[in-house]
Amino acid sequence: MRQALALAGALAVATAAHAGRPCEEKQPTARQIEQGLNLAQATARQLDASGAQVVILARAGQDLSKYGLQWSHLGFVYKDTTQQPAVWRVMHKLNNCGTDHAALYRQGLGEFFLDNPHRYQAAFAVLKPELQQALLPVLTDNSRVARFNERRYSMVAYAFGTTYQQSNQWVLETLVGSAAPSVNNRRDAQNWLKAQGYQPTDLHLSTLTRLGGRMTRANIAFDDHPSARRFSSHIDTVTVDSMFTWMQRNNLSEPPQLVKQ
Questions:
Q1: Burial class (CB in 10 A: 0-12, 13-18, 19+), 28
Q2: Which of 51, 105, 161, 191 has the most CB atoms at less than 10 Å from its CB?
């Protein structure tokens, strides 16, 4: 049920891969499977009605309400017209559970929602038509889709650093690569984001919280953050909520649409 299609080169399959939710190895219950599939069907219906070919899709894997955030993880969703009838595919980045690295996965909507999320709701933002056209051939090409991928993973990777990369950050930088053809690498993408006014989420994490996370979790690191910000408990990272706000403000997408079961 949780098998993912392995992609060539930089894309790989791991036995346990997670993003935007706790790293737990529990088989889903029948009720959880039913809820996940119902949400997938509801999402497909709304995507079909949107007329879009490429959207950004978010899920609530973890409860991040204490940070003022609604969503924890997102990916690209595109319409695969090589299948008849056409189907929706999700391209996203997942951390290989218990490790400091991640890989890219291509999945169906059902798989995307079978990870026992905190809340059975989703949100998607339809990208502007020219950006959809630019992204579609990238998302279907195993080599091109991995262009901005960094294997080294931290759940709280610095938004303007290249040492690590978290899942939402990969989506954002890949989006930039299609929005600005002159961008050739991650550093270029981040400089472009700064120029376009992207503001990452400022997570206020105490020293004790940071030390606890770093010592007990291989997929959490803080050493890529600027010292002055880190030592004053400010961790600047890419979140779904910050991306939705920035994309809409910069006319890259329509307002997010909520999906319920």
A1: middle
A2: 105
pLDDT digits (tens, 9 = 90+) for 55-74: 999 999 988 988 899 999 99
Full-model pTM: 0.88
Cα–Cα distances (Å) from 152 to 31, 115, 121, 157, 173, in that order, read 35, 22, 29, 10, 15
| Bridge partners (DSSP) listed for residue 122 | 59, 259
DSSP letter for each residue of 101-168 = BEEEEEEEHHHHT-S--SEEEEEEEEBPHHHHHHHHHHHT-HHHHTTT--SB--TT--TT-SS---HH
- Amino acid symbol at 76: F
Reading the block at residue 22, the tokens are 């706790």
Domain ranges of the chain: 17-260
Q: What is the pLDDT of residue 24?
A: 58
Closest CA to 252 of 123, 129, 136: 129
Residues 196-220 pLDDT 10s: 999 999 987 654 354 444 444 678 8
- Residue 143 CA to residue 80 CA, distance in Å, equals 17
Q: What are phi and psi of 240, to 5 degrees?
A: -60, -45
Residue whose tokens read 């791991």:
14
Q: Report the C-alpha gap between 12 and 149 in whole angstroms.
A: 12
pLDDT tens, residue by residue, 114-139: 888 889 999 999 999 999 999 999 99
Is-contact 208 89, C-beta < 8 A? no
Distance CA(126)–CA(255), nearest Å, equals 8
